[in-house]
Write a structure and sequence with these properties.
This protein is of the alpha+beta class and 183 residues long. The protein is built from one helix and nine strands; from the N terminus they run αβββββββββ.
Length: 183
């Protein structure tokens, strides 16, 4: 035999080494999975919060740009995007539209500007049962009851830590969100 040559050559992993590696990977996955699920729920709520805030800002900007009343209401865009729903319909989605009856207690859809579909894994509840919010030509918000309008947005199940968001629309039409502990 030559210098530096072994009579036995290594041919890879044995069965015992493979079983040990698989066991270690399984243990690490079991530790990481709950944390990963929490992150997914937090991201879903964060994404829907941003969608809702962008919808309120869009409605306010359109009202100012068009010098007309523009409203946002709970709606199911997949079933009938031209009909406002009740306060429970925020879980389905919402739409921004030009409102032809700005002084009325019921919004009248003239032209739908945009619709959003809500994430079915989240639960969104208006604090005072608001089914719609109006913005006048100056960007001020009106609702029944009067602003500030608040929404609670949280994961449908297993809400933990500060995954819940409170979304507020002031009378001046400004919208914001805050993380709050799950109730």
């Amino acid at each position: 035999m030559g210098v530096g040559t072994n009579s036995r050559t290594s041919r890879g992993f044995g069965l015992i080494e493979l079983v040990i590696v698989i066991a270690i990977v399984a243990i690490l996955a079991a530790i990481a999975l709950p944390s990963f699920n929490t992150s997914i729920r937090s991201n879903r709520v964060g994404t829907q919060t941003n969608d809702l805030l962008s919808a309120f800002n869009y409605a306010r900007n359109e009202a100012i740009t068009r010098s007309r009343g523009v409203s946002i209401c709970a709606a199911d865009p997949e079933v009938d995007p031209l009909v406002c729903g009740g306060d429970a319909a925020w879980n389905l989605g919402w739409m921004v539209f030009v409102d032809t009856a700005p002084g009325s207690s019921v919004p009248v859809v003239d032209e739908v500007l945009r619709t959003w579909v809500a994430n079915p894994n989240n639960s969104m509840i208006p604090a005072d049962g608001n089914a719609f919010v109006r913005f006048n030509s100056r960007g001020e918000a009106f609702a029944n009851p009067a602003p500030p309008v608040q929404f609670a947005l949280r994961p449908e199940s297993n809400c933990s830590n500060d995954q819940e968001r409170t979304i507020v629309i002031t009378q001046l039409g400004r919208s914001s969100s805050t993380r709050v502990p799950c109730a």
